[in-house]
Design a protein that fits this description.
239 residues, methyltransferase (chains A, B), 10 strands, Methyltransferase, Cobalt-precorrin-4 Transmethylase, Domain 2, homodimer, 5-stranded mixed beta sheet, Cobalt-precorrin-4 Transmethylase, domain 1, porphyrin biosynthesis (chains A, B), alpha/beta, 2 domains, S-adenosyl-L-methionine (chains A, B)
Chain lengths: 239, 239
């Protein structure tokens, strides 16, 4: 019986192929098999053209592989291959279901290494040139999602940070804005929405909290919503 | 008169040279001049050996270049060079004083591009294999710092998120823990402290909220403090 392989949980970053880390790119090039999410692009998969590719795409509103099935696939790959990569959009440790995959692998005694990635919020801040913190104005940032798990309340309290970033915020963002208005945040608080962050079809929309409460146009791709005084456009900022 | 150069604000990531993005590494290799922080390592500066290197190191407790001086240096570099890189530890848009640099450059009509980086919190989550979110347990994360700016209150409210991450948390973390206990968080809430994240001398300490309130040993390097139920070590987790 051969030794169990090692599994690398790697953050692909926000989408653009060159926003993966050098370490992530090197390990992709050495992988025997790569299990990848729906949001990973063909350009990025070209970095691991030598590997067997397995799509385990999860994307809201579309059929996807159940998490328990993904966990089992990872275990089976580690039995068959020495170098297994699980490639996740953004960073694996933030809204990535990594806890479940780590537990499944650890239960079988399989070695795991985690390689961090650029999380979409920071790529969106870069793309819009809007720092999420600002001296004297914004010194705390919260990342959250409204996706619910079984047994969780639908609407836990919103974080009371200076800057708020809602991941997977397309449909839920209007409700977030309405709740922030009800909590007393000011109606003209700046909001920046980024769709398909860092990709060729990236779209940036600037509005206010009131505008966000009125709802977003239907987005086709993943949407990130940034809210707070730090998102105020600067006087001489280009676009 | 020659045209003004372009300035790239680039996130170096947490420290390890191969945790910079491929885009960041490429732009470093093309730079004529690089202005870098104290936390950027010599190994990373080897990626821009062709460039003029200017240290503008800022590190708490040590003498450093004032922000207004850095702003002025950036403007002067963009007048003399076509490709200027401002290399910052972690990600430039999170606790990076980017707002001030962007304003100074925009006021002179200088073009700026921002390249995101792996922020230290996510590298610490990877190094400790502790996801910051966990289905059903932790769905919001706050990043904050206690560093104060002139005119700010010393102790704004702590974010009421499931997971809290305090940057530059060495001296301030005990006070944070005491305040969280006073707010009713449970005494045995898991805490993970990471010093010199991703570097050869990385140090990981696991404790509880009560333990953190009792104070940390003196750290030599930058310290990141992660607090919350998501930081609970898994039964079969190695180290």
């Amino acid at each position: 019986m051969t030794a169990l392989g090692k599994v690398y949980l790697i953050g692909a970053g926000p989408g653009a192929v060159d926003l993966i880390t050098m370490r992530g790119a090197r390990l992709l090039g050495e992988a025997e098999v790569v299990l990848y999410d729906a949001l990973v692009t063909p350009e990025m998969l070209a970095l691991c053209a030598q590997a067997t590719l397995i799509s385990v795409g999860k994307r809201s509103g579309q059929r996807s592989t159940a998490q328990t099935v993904i966990n089992q696939q990872l275990v089976e790959c580690a039995r068959r291959y020495q170098r297994v990569v699980r490639l996740k959009g953004g960073d694996p440790m933030l809204f990535g279901r990594a806890d479940e995959e780590l537990r499944a692998l650890e239960a079988e005694g399989i070695e795991v290494e985690v390689v961090p990635g650029v999380t979409t919020a920071l790529a969106a801040a870069a793309a819009t040139k809007q720092p999420l913190t600002r001296r004297g104005i914004a010194r705390s940032v919260a990342f959250f999602t409204s996706s619910t798990a079984p047994g969780e309340p639908d609407h836990p309290a919103l974080p009371a940070t200076d800057t708020l970033v809602q991941y997977m915020g397309g449909r839920e963002a209007a409700a977030t804005a309405a709740r922030l208005l009800a909590e007393g945040r000011r109606p003209d608080l700046p909001v920046v929405v980024v769709e398909n962050c860092s990709r060729a079809d990236q779209r940036i929309v600037r509005l206010t909290l009131t505008g966000l409460a009125n709802g977003l146009d239907d987005a086709q791709g993943p949407v990130l919503v940034m809210i707070g005084e730090a998102l105020q456009q600067r006087p001489q900022q280009a676009s």
